[in-house]
Each structure stands twice: as C-alpha cells, then as structure tokens.
Amino acid sequence: MHDARTLPASKFAAIFDEISTIGARPSEGVTRLAASAEDGVARGLFAAWMEQGGARIALDAIGNQFVCFDWAGTDAPWIFAGSHLDTQPRGGRFDGTLGVLAAGCAALDLSEQASAGRLKPTRNLAVVNWTNEEGARYQPSLTGSAVFSGALPLDDALTLRDGAAISLKDALAAIGINGEKGTVPPSPKAYVELHVEQGRKLLEAGRSIGIVEGTWAARKTTVRWIGRAAHTGPTPMVDRRDALLAAAQGIAAFEDVIAANFPLLHRSAARLVVEPNSPNVVVDRATVWFELRGPDVAELDVAGQAALAAFEKSAADTGTQLEIVADALRNPATMDGQLMTIVGRAARSSGFEPLTMRSVAGHDAVALQNSGVPSALIFVPSVDGIAHHPDELTLPDDVQAGLTVLTATLRRLIEGESHAG
Ligand SMILES: [Zn+2]
To answer: What CATH number is associated with residue 91?
Structure first.
C-alpha cells in the first residue's frame, strides 16, 4: 500500500500557531521553561486538543504527559511518539513542539482511519510530552525521559533546583501536577520522535527527511571558583581572591586548550553565575557551565582532563579554590536499526529519499534508546541550521514531509510491522 497521503496541514498549523503564542514576545521568540506557568498553559491546551479527538490523558510523577489511544486493548503492546513542549529562554517555535504536535496530528489521523475500519491497530499509541527536555531551567536535560526510562531516579529529579532554588517538585505542583494521574502506559515496544535538525546537513544534501543513526556523546561539567568577598575599593590588590577573574581565565584557557588539541569537538561555556553579584564586592563565587561534545567518549575523557587542568591552573594563578560541582557524561546512542529500516520504508513509500545522519544534540529518543527502548529519530530541515534562537524555522513543505513520514511510520508500527524482513 502506498503511504503517500496529504494530511490536513491546516490541522497542524492551527494548533501549532496557537501554542506558539504561549510565552512568545515580539522579537524575543518563545520562553516556555519547564514547569513554568507558560508550560502549564501549553500542556493544558495540548491536552484539551487531544481529548477532543477521543484520547485519554495520563501523567506520571515527573509530569510526563501521555495521550493514550487504547485501540488494541489493555494487553496489547504500546508505541510512543512525541517530543517536548518546553523551550529554551528566547527559544524557537519548532524545537520539540513540532514533534509533539505532529505526533498528535498523526494520532488523530490514525484514530479516524481506525474508526472508519481502514486501519487495524494491533498496538496502542501514546503521544508523549516529556518534562524538561531542554535542561534550561533544571539540569540535567532530558529529565522526564530519563526518569521514565529508569536512568534518573524520580526523587533525584523532583529535588532538582532552578536558579531561584525552586524544586522541580514545587514547580510542577504550582501548575497542578502533584504525582501520577490516570493509568500511565508501560514501557513501549518502540518510540518515534520527529525533530528539527538544528544543523545544515539536510539543506546541503537537498533532502527533506533525515534518519538519525546515532548521536554524539556530551560531557557537561559545572565548575565553581571560590574566592573571597571584599570591598572593591579599599581592599589592597594583593589581598584579593577574585573568583570572576579566575572564571574568565578558566574560560579563555578552556577555549585555547580544546581548540588547539581537540579541534573537532564542539565546546562551550554558556552559563555564568556570579555571587554576590554586586558592583562593589570582589566576586566570592563564580560558577560556569561547560560542555564538550563529540562522537567518541575516549576523546571526551582526554579533553575533559585537559580542561580540568586548565581550570586548576586558573585557580592557582588567582589564589582561588576550584570545586567540581557536576561532571556528567552522556553516552552516544546508536539508534535502532530495525526501526531505521521501517522509517526508511515509510519515507520512500511517501516519496522521500531519506538521508542517514548523526545528531550532535541529545533528544528524548536518545534517553529511551540508551535505556533499551528501540527508538527512532526523524529529522526535518532547519533553515540556515538556526536553533535555540527566535529565528528558528522549518518551512511548511518540510513540516508536511515530516508529518507524512511520521504518520506513515506510526501506521506501520501500530499495525505490527516489527522487523526489517
Ligand atoms: Zn528539542
């Protein structure tokens, strides 16, 4: 059977445009941090839209939303599809939201077909909105998917604190999420995520659909330099222990050592917290969030050691102390080969020749795949590769391509296709 069908793009556009206004400000993009009031509004709108389509909603204790279509009966296996509705501060409209709403549209479409007898589901489908994928408000990122898949203990996740010391548990409670609600489906047979590429490879290759075969590893290291608060005026220079100066030197040394010795790794220092943050107090504590990303864990280890040596030197040079607050490795993922084959078949039968590619960024599909749930990650192009910026854009034809291939993939999975043969 030919999968190509023009899905009503207007159905996607209507809900996408509505959710895109939540947390949006002119020229500042969308700010919908995890478990914020804006996130609560988006969750409510999404749930209401799906309930109108006949789904039942369940929540687990970390606030993951499961939109359930129990077509195949309570004992049948489950297929999940989804992504996340939270954003970065001043983020784009498509990152995450595309995957959740496209999966919602696909589910509604498949539900209609099942009701009309044009589809015989042998598996149930849940559309999932994972909590705090972005890691902007709470670190680590991929929180909801990591808890669901068992990689992160629930209590550790609920006691995470944001920059204002609000726990994730309290933030969720403030938007009405107080523990599990409804019947949460069991671990699925497969998870499929549609996401924007956040790079330029699809555009350069002239393709609309990417199938991710694997992702890079990431080493995320949070470092604190501890100095000594003092008056910025009278304190003699020789007595100063300036934590901000140490951080500045540490960041510059990190840039130099990694660029010189590991030029293919992606590196960043992207968050700095200064205490007490007064113009008249020599900085007591400066905390910096560093990242290294690359395909090879062994190389990240060596690079990480070189970075730590640079941080220690900047501490020694400024008379400050170094504290390693967090140093976490996210393993690379190899996505499921059989699912890749099914997605490829769905893409070709819909008229799209897919590009097999790697992802630099982590996604919820990585958390699930690495915990043993066979997972697929489908990419659509990002104009100019722009990501985590208000100008993030995926063109309507590419959104349609993603929606078509996601729907065709889910149709195959809920009808029971499970192997490459
Ligand atoms: Zn995302």
So the answer is: 3.40.630.10
